[in-house]
Amino acid sequence: MRFPALVFSTLLLATMVATTPASASCSPATLKGVYGYYHGRPGGGATITAVLGQMSSDGAGNLSGSWTMSVNGAITFGSFDGVYTIAANCTGTLTFATEDTTPAHFNIFLDDTHKGFQMIQTDPGFAQPGFGMAQGTTPCGLSGAAQTLATNFLGTLFPTLDIEAVAGQLKLNGLGNITGGSETFSVAGTITVSPVAGSTYTEQNNCQGTAQIISALGTMNFRTVVVNSGKEWMMLEDDNNTLVAGTAQE
Predict the structure, then answer these.
(1) CB 105 within 8 A of CB 125
(2) Which domains does the chain have, with CATH numbers?
(3) How far apart are CA 60 and CA 4, in angstroms?
C-alpha cells in the first residue's frame, strides 16, 4: 500500500478521441452502450472523493452499472440502477440510485462524436466534475497482444497536502504481466524516477480489471475500466488510505 494519497484532476486528463462524424441532433438512443466514467473533487475541503465506474445505457433512458469509490482514502464498492435523459442539443442528465449520495444527480454534455461526455454533479454541497468515455467495439480480455501504455496521475498528498504528479510507461505482454516500464514522480518538486518490475494486470471480458504497479515508492493496486476500444484504461487505486486516480493511454 502506498502512503501518499492522490486526487485526480479531471480537467487535465479528460481527452476525448474524435473518430466519427457528429449527428445533427441527439436523443436517448445516442447514449446507448457501455461507458467508463470518473468524477471527483480535485482538492479542498475536509472530504475528498474520487469515483471510477462503468455504466450501461439501453438507449431508452435506463442505466445500470458499478463503481469503486475512495472517500478520504476509505475504499468502497457498489452497483446501481438509474435513469438518464438526452435532449436534442446533446445535453442531458444522469441519475444513479446509489453512489456517493442516494440518489446522485449529474448534468452531462456529449462530445461532438457522441463517444464521450463531460459531467458535473448537481447535488447541493458537491463540487465534482468528471467525464465518461465509450467502451468501443474491440472485445476485452487477455488476448496475447502486447501493448505499451503511457500513464498519468495528478493529485495531492495527505496529510501534507503536497502536490504530486506522476507520468510513466507500462509495457504489457497481453497475458497479464507488466514486463517493463518506468514512472517519474514529482512530489513537492522532488523528482524520483523508478523502473516498474514484477507487476501484473487482469482484464475481464466486461472490460473491467485490475493493475498492480510496483515501483521504488511501493505497490499501487488499481481497479481499471477499459475504454476507447482497448486503447485506454481509466484507473482508481483501491488500496485503503489512498485516493489515487488517472489514465493509461496507448
Answers:
(1) no
(2) 13-134 (2.40.128.120), 147-249 (2.40.128)
(3) 42
Q: Determine the distance from the C-alpha atom of residue 110 to the mean position of all C-alpha atoms in its chain, rounded to a whole number.
A: 17
Q: Is the dihedral of CA 59, 61, 66, 67 positive or negative?
A: positive
| 23-64 per-position pLDDT tens digit | 469 999 999 999 999 999 756 667 888 999 999 999 999 999
pTM, two decimal places: 0.88
Minimal CA–CA distance to 38: which of 201, 250, 185, 244? 244
Q: What does the block give as the cell for 83?
A: 435513469
Give pLDDT tens digits for 65-84: 999 999 888 899 999 999 99
**Nearby residues of 94 by Cβ (< 8 Å), 6 or more positions away:** 55, 63, 82, 84, 105, 106, 108, 119
